[in-house]
Amino acid sequence: MMSLPFVLFACGLGAAWLRQREVALGFWTAGLVVLLALFRAHYGDALNIAL
Amino acid sequence: MPSDLSRLLNALGLVAIDTVLALAFIDQLWFRDLPCPVCILQRAGFIAAGFGIALNLVLGPRPSHYGVTILGAVAGAAIALRQMLLYIVPGSGSYGNEVFGMHLYSWAFVGFVAIVIGAAIMLFYDRQFGRGGPLSNRLDAFTLTALVTFAVLVVGNIFSTLFLCGLGFCPEAPVGYVL
Question: What is the pLDDT of residue B170?
Fold first, then answer.
């Protein structure tokens, strides 16, 4: 699961190398969404700061 | 700005990101400082930012590619900032080794901010966008090395994360490799 953003970015790089710009940007967008979703899943709790 | 200079500066930027990702691997493999889940996500943030630079190098500079870089860096900065806030209260601990007096997540935040500023400055030079595509289909050795190294580091992170976390979520404070 945690490696999924890297997989999507790697696919995007492959698409860019093949000059498929739209496909590359699609993979990048998917990778960024997954990255933020994983961040939300891991660190969605409130900060434990007692002042 | 001539496109050649734009390409050189983009290649230098990608080398800088390659260096950050390589240093993270050195810290993980040589100093056995295993990355936490949010550390892994920061690595992905650097790759998301470097993706736009790679697009500039392969397909030619475009404003949208710099937008990719900025958005990736902002996402990474948000993640790094969140980790800094976790330990902002004195006595609340920290994660990992210090390098030159700051933890890696603090350096990561500095790096992401530098990427945003660098991409914003590059956007000022309109002349680089004069051509629809790259100057030539042939990439020079320096640019090609930066791109190949970036690709290798992306694939390396796939395997590293798989070994560290398996197919699920990572443990909060990993003590060893799952696979």
Answer: 78
